[in-house]
Amino acid sequence: MSAASLRLRLGLAGAVTVLFALGLAALGLSALFATHAERRAEAELAVHLDQLLAGLARPAGALEVAIPPGDPRFERPYGGLYWQIAAPGGTLLRSRSLWDAELALPPPGDGAPHVERLAGPDGAPVLALLRGVVLPEALGGGRAVAAVALETAEIDRARAAFTRDMLPYLAILALALILAGWAQIAVGLRPLGALRQRIGALRRGREARMGGGWPAELRALTGEIDALLDAHDRDVARARDRAADLAHGLKTPLQALLGEAARLAEAGETAAAEGIEALAAEMRRHVDRELVRARSAAAPGTARAPLAPAAERVLSVIRRTPDGAARHWQVEIAEGLDVALGPDELAELLGPVLENAARHAVAVVRISARALGGAAEIAIRDDGPGLPADRLEAMTRRGMRLDESGGGSGLGLAIASEIAEAAGGRLSLVRPGGAGLEVRISLPLAEPPPPGTGGEGALRRSG
Fold first, then answer.
1. First CA to last CA across the chain, in angstroms?
2. Which of 247, 279, 298 is the last residue of a domain?
3. CB within 8 A of 276, min separation 6: which ones?
4. What's the pTM value of the predicted model, to 2 decimals?
5. What pLDDT does residue 449 have?
6. Which residues constitute the domain of residue 452?
7. By percentage, how much of the chain surpasses pLDDT 90?
């Protein structure tokens, strides 16, 4: 897939967006879990703190915790859960878990419990719940500070475990969202594929306009394409009309020139008459060539002409010429070959090719045609002297003639080649095995050949 592909860019943008959003969600959920874990820890510390204060006693004149909180972590050195009471007179009571460490407690407050972060054993951070209390006379009186602390490493470990457990599910969710995004892109861009196919049908002449039924986002584009095609058709029609007007406008002057040439010939000015006739003939050929080009350009995309009848019509004219009457014509054209050309354009293409074959053949001209790969492949072969291999390509250029000693302007094959190329085909010259010259013409079919025929079918034969 190309780096400039719209599908790829939308897919990558969607994937990056999904990953970014899920990354933010993971951070947010992890922070939310940590906050929730701290609240649960504070609630647990509040229970331990109430138990600690309820267990204070003074059985032998000294303040002590007669009934400590029951969590075993208070009894394990550096167990992660600690309590400490700072009483009047410098009395300091600590849990066994503190061992030889001491929490730096602030002065007694107003009695409301509050949470602070302190440094625990070995400098490990702890989350401490502190409360300032007034001891009754039975416990010696005065103000004391009680604290229960939990190492924050436990909260961090819980947060990390939650994140590890959450990541596989986020990965599955990311994959599902990315796949859903690709499916959405595929569905959303499907009309573009239909648009490409319709434009291809326009180019191949199978459709005349884009038509309706497009999504709202594409209607403006298809409407502009249809408007452009309408404007093009109008421009081509005007150009064709101007070419026809020019041709008709030149006919009278050309006829006048030919009349002047006839008068000169009657007056004995044979050389001048022949020169004028040659110039008039050359001008007529150029006018005819431009008319052919105008008709080819104006041919609608849905043009169609059956090949076999068109070839027969052209041959019926050529057989009446001296060269055509003296040749034997072998015609093998598969039935049902309709090419994407108008009937007039097809006749203009075949005419000069068949005329050249008749002029240069010795005895036989063979014409064959069949469908191959969506195109009509036409071969016109004569048994004449042929051409050197280095001249084959040049013969389709304007002004080149097969017989340099003969007349003609050398425009026939050039015109035929231009008509074939305008229709999306090609014309080429090859040297077949043995003598002669073969002109090969490839023209697109008006419709794809029926499946399985491979261009083979009934042949239209004539001799």
1. 55
2. 298
3. 257, 258, 260, 261, 264
4. 0.53
5. 42
6. 303-462
7. 31
pLDDT above 70 coverage of the chain, percent = 85
Rounded distance between C-alpha atoms, residue 113 and residue 149, angstroms:
13
Tokens standing for residue 127: 């989350």
Q: Is the pLDDT of residue 403 over 70?
A: no
For the chain, what is the HEC assignment?
CCCCCHHHHHHHHHHHHHHHHHHHHHHHHHHHHHHHHHHHHHHHHHHHHHHHHHCEECCCCCCEECCCCCCHHHCCCCCCEEEEEEEHHHEEEECHHHCCCCCCCCCCCCCCCEEEEEECHHHCEEEEEEEEEECCHHHCCCEEEEEEEEEHHHHHHHHHHHHHHHHHHHHHHHHHHHHHHHHHHHHHHHHHHHHHHHHHHHHHCCCCCCCCCCCHHHHHHHHHHHHHHHHHHHHHHHHHHHHHHHHHHHHHHHHHHHHHHHHHHHCCCHHHHHHHHHHHHHHHHHHHHHHHHHHHHHCCCCCCEEHHHHHHHHHHHHCCCHHHHCCEEEEEEECCCEECCCHHHHHHHHHHHHHHHHHHCCCEEEEEEEEECCEEEEEEEECCCCCCHHHCHHHHCCCCCCCCCCCCCCCHHHHHHHHHHHCCCEEEEECCCCCCEEEEEEEEECCCCCCCCCCCCCEEEEC
Clarify whether residues 25 and 124 are in a common domain: yes
Q: Does residue 295 surpass a pLDDT of 70? A: no
Q: Is there a domain that residue 98 lies in? A: yes
Backbone phi, psi, residue 153, to 5°: -60, -30
Residue 182 lies in a domain: no
422, 315: one domain: yes
Q: Report, in angstroms and rounded to the nearest whole number, the Rg of the chain calculated over CA atoms.
A: 50
- Is 19 inside a domain boundary? yes
Q: Are residues 291 and 392 in the same domain?
A: no
